[in-house]
Design brief:
Layout (H helix, E strand, L loop, with lengths): L1 H8 L3 H33 L2 H19 L5 H7 L6 H33 L4 H15 L5 H7 L4 H25 L3 H21 L11 H35 L2 H35 L6 H36 L7 H11 L1 H5 L5 H5 L3 H26 L1 H25 L5 H21 L1 H9 L2
Length: 453
C-alpha cells in the first residue's frame, strides 16, 4: 500500500509516468466512450452518407493541420527552453498565425474538394468547419507544458469536458436539423469549449503575442523535419479515407469510418500513451546511460504492447457481434471491417514505442525518413489493394506497410539503442496465433464481406 501511495503521489520520473499513463488511459477511454455514445445516438438520427461526408471534411481539415505542423508540441517537450516564457510566447504566436492561415485555406480548397469528390455540400461545410482551426490556434501553451512535465490530470478532465460540450451540441443540432451541419457546427463549438476551458482551467503564465528571433529559429530548425514528417503522416492517418472517398459511395465510406473507429481505438490509445510517455522517458533516462534504464524501458514497452495488443485482439474477436448489438442493419458490413482492421493494425502496436527515441534525441531527420517511408508504403499499397481486391485489399495494406518498413525502424531503434528483438518476436507470435484463430472463427462473415466487395 505504501509503495502504491508513493507511486501515485511522488515526484520521481517513475511516479509521474505512472500517474500520467493512468490519466491518459482514463482520458482516452473516456473520450472513446463519449464518441461511441454519440455515434450510437447520431447513427439513429442521421444517415450513413452523413458520416461519409463528415469523413471527407475531416480528411481536408486533418490534411491542412498535418501539412502545416512545425512540431511546436515536440519542440516544447524536448527543448531545454521549454519552460522559458519568451520561448513559449513565440511558439504561441506561431500557432496563432498558423491557425488563421489554415482557416483561409479551407475556403480556398472548398470548391476543388467539392468537385473532386462530387459533394457540393463541401462548398460551405469546409469553411465553417475550418473556423475550429483558427480557434485552436489560440489554445494556451500551458497544454504542452503539462505534457512536458507529465502533469496531465487536469488537462485530461478539461479535454473530456470540451468533448462532452461538442457532442451534446451535435446531438441537439442533429435532432433540430437532421443534417450534416450538426456535426460541422458541433466541431466548432467543441473547439471554442476547449479554448475557454484550458485558458481558464490550467495554471501558469498567460500567453501573449511575442517574437524572439532565437526562439523562432530553434522552433523552425527542429520543426522543419517534423513538418515533413507530419505531412507524410497525413497519408498514414487519412490516406485511406481520401482514396475511398473517390472510389466508393458516401454511405460505404461512412460505414468504413465507423468500422475503423471501433477497430482503431486500441491502437490510437496505445500510440497516444506511448508518444506522451516514451519521449520524456527516453529523454530523461536514456538507454545508453545504464542497464537500469534499459530494463525500465523494456518493462514500460512490454506493458504498453501487452495492453494495446490485447485490446486489438479482443476487438477483432467481438467485432461482428458488437456491431450487430450496437447498430442497425444498415451498418452490418462494419463487423467484418472491424475484424480485418483490428488484425491489420497489430504491427503498428507492436512497433509503436521506438520512433520516440529519435525525437527525444533531437533526431527529427531520421523520424521524418521513417514517417515518409511508412506513409508512401501504406498509401501505395492501399490504393493498389483497393483497385485489385476491393476494400479487403486496402485494409491488408495497413499490415503489409508496417512489416515492409520494419527494417528501417530497426535501424532507428539500433541507432538510439532501444531495439528489443525479444519483445517484437513474442508479440508477433501472439498476434499470428490469435489472429489465425479469430479469422477461422469469423470466416463466414469475412467471406460474405469479401464477396460483396
Amino acid at each position: 500500500m505504501a509503495g502504491s501511495a508513493r507511486l501515485l503521489t511522488g515526484q520521481s520520473l517513475t511516479a509521474r509516468v505512472a500517474r500520467s499513463g493512468s490519466w491518459m488511459v482514463i482520458g482516452y477511454g473516456g473520450s472513446q466512450a463519449l464518441r461511441l455514445a454519440s455515434n450510437l445516438v447520431l447513427t439513429r438520427i442521421l444517415f450513413p452518407e452523413a458520416f461519409g461526408l463528415m469523413a471527407l471534411v475531416q480528411v481536408v481539415l486533418t490534411g491542412l493541420v498535418l501539412f502545416s505542423d512545425v512540431g511546436l508540441g515536440p519542440s516544447i517537450a524536448q527543448n531545454k527552453r521549454g519552460d522559458d516564457p519568451d520561448f513559449l510566447d513565440t511558439a504561441w504566436t506561431l500557432q496563432v498565425i498558423r491557425g488563421f492561415c489554415l482557416w483561409a485555406l479551407t475556403g480556398l480548397l472548398a470548391w476543388p474538394a467539392a468537385e473532386f469528390y462530387g459533394a457540393p455540400e463541401l462548398l460551405w461545410y469546409l469553411p465553417v468547419a475550418g473556423a475550429s482551426l483558427a480557434i485552436a490556434g489560440f489554445n494556451p501553451t500551458r497544454i504542452e507544458t503539462a505534457n512536458r512535465h507529465l502533469l496531465v490530470g487536469r488537462l485530461t478532465l478539461l479535454d473530456l469536458m470540451a468533448q462532452l460540450t461538442g457532442i451534446t451540441s451535435m446531438v441537439v443540432l442533429a435532432l433540430a436539423t437532421g443534417s450534416v451541419s450538426a456535426l460541422v457546427i458541433g466541431g466548432v463549438i467543441q473547439a471554442v469549449a476547449k479554448l475557454a476551458l484550458t485558458h481558464w482551467g490550467l495554471p501558469g503564465q498567460r500567453n501573449r503575442l511575442h517574437w524572439e528571433r532565437a526562439a523562432a529559429q530553434d522552433l523552425i530548425h527542429f520543426g522543419k523535419w517534423i513538418f515533413l514528417s507530419t505531412a507524410f503522416s497525413f497519408l498514414t492517418s487519412q490516406g485511406d479515407r481520401a482514396i475511398l472517398g473517390k472510389f466508393v459511395p458516401l454511405d460505404v465510406l461512412g460505414i468504413y469510418n465507423i468500422g475503423y473507429f471501433l477497430a482503431g481505438f486500441p491502437m490510437l490509445l496505445g500510440l497516444t500513451v506511448a508518444r506522451r510517455l516514451m519521449l520524456p522517458v527516453y529523454r530523461d533516462r536514456p538507454a545508453a546511460a545504464s542497464a537500469s534504464n534499459r530494463r525500465r524501458q523494456r518493462q514500460l514497452r512490454s506493458g504498453l504492447t501487452a495492453g494495446s495488443l490485447s485490446l486489438l485482439l479482443l476487438m477483432a474477436l467481438l467485432g461482428p457481434w458488437l456491431v450487430d448489438l450496437l447498430y442497425d442493419d444498415r451498418y452490418a458490413p462494419a463487423g467484418a471491417m472491424v475484424v480485418l482492421t483490428s488484425l491489420a493494425l497489430a504491427p503498428a502496436v507492436i512497433f509503436m514505442t521506438y520512433d520516440q527515441a529519435a525525437l527525444a534525441a533531437g533526431d527529427s531527420r531520421f523520424f521524418f525518413l521513417l514517417s515518409a517511408v511508412r506513409a508512401l508504403l501504406q498509401t501505395g499499397l492501399f490504393l493498389a489493394g483497393v483497385l485489385w481486391l476491393g476494400l479487403p485489399g486496402g485494409i491488408a495494406a495497413f499490415c503489409l506497410s508496417m512489416l515492409a518498413a520494419y527494417p528501417l525502424l530497426i535501424a532507428l531503434a539500433r541507432k538510439h539503442q532501444v531495439w528489443d528483438p525479444l519483445h517484437d518476436l513474442v508479440a508477433g507470435l501472439v498476434w499470428l496465433a490469435a489472429g489465425a484463430a479469430i479469422l477461422l472463427l469469423h470466416q463466414d462473415v469475412l467471406l460474405a464481406f469479401a464477396g460483396g466487395n
